[in-house]
Amino acid sequence: MQLMPARATLLGVADAFDPRANLDGGVRHLRELLLRYDGNVRLALAAYNAGEDAVRLHGGVPPFPETQEYVRKVLSLYAPLAPAG
Predict the structure, then answer these.
(1) What is the Cα–Cα distance from 53 to 47, expressed in whole angstroms?
(2) What share of the chain is helix, strand, coil (3-state, %, to 5)?
(3) pTM here?
(4) Considering all CA atoms of the chain, what is the largest pairwise distance in Å, rounded to the nearest integer?
(5) Helix (H, G, I), strand (E, B) or coil at 11
């Protein structure tokens, strides 16, 4: 998972290179973002990649090529697994 040092500290992840701790912290962070964005997976992914401030500043997915590609790629992988409805 992608955990910046400050976020890892906030999540109580002592060693972001420990696979179990990293996954635990990353999943908790993603869950927090999904709650913050009322289940909007696109915004949660954008915030996970670019940061919540960037999503707020741009009023949605920021125009950063890396973030736009990240969101597109993850959503394409997620779509076949997503619940119907």
Answers:
(1) 8
(2) 70, 0, 30
(3) 0.86
(4) 39
(5) coil
